[in-house]
Amino acid sequence: MPGKFCVSLTHGKDNTDKATVAFVIANASVASDKETLVFLSTEAVRWAQPGFAEGVHEEGFAPLKELMANYAKAGGRLLVCSPCFKRRKLDETKLVDGAFIAGGAKLVEFLSDGAACVSY
Predict the structure, then answer these.
(1) Residue 2: is its pLDDT beyond 80?
(2) Quick check: 7 and 26 in contact, CB under 8 A?
(3) Is residue 8 predicted with pLDDT exceeding 90?
(4) Angle subtended at Cα 30 by Cα 119 and Cα 34, rounded to the nearest 5 degrees
(5) For the residues 61-84, what does the mean pLDDT come to?
(6) Confidence band, pLDDT 50/70/90 cuts, at residue 103
């Protein structure tokens, strides 16, 4: 199934249930051969930092750290909102696999040809 799919995530540890489900959906998308992008904004930019997902495990799902690692191994990418990341004074030199920092224009470019997007 060719095409593109985006998952937009705004939650960090304030709602680990939504964060977990976002990565479950992202894994399903990348497994379906969709070019998949997870857009991390506001508090979700913290997931791009190594170790932040440590210990997050919602009942009924794989641990979030495992979901994120599987997503990256499958070729999934994490677009990290640059202004959100900078506002939180996070370390740009330390990012999880598959993550890159960019502005909103990269998201618009990805979505511009009609890519579906869900938000959590």
Answers:
(1) no
(2) yes
(3) yes
(4) 85
(5) 98
(6) very high
CA distance 110 to 107: 5
Nearest CA-CA partner of 91 in 54, 56, 46? 46
What's the burial of 16, exposed, middle or buried (CB within 10 Å: 0-12/13-18/19+)? Answer: middle
CA dihedral 14, 11, 92, 107 (to 10 degrees): -170
Domains in the chain, CATH or no CATH each: 4-119 (3.40.1260.10)
pLDDT tens digits, 38-53: 999 999 999 999 999 9
Collapsing DSSP to helix, strand or coil, 97 comes out as coil
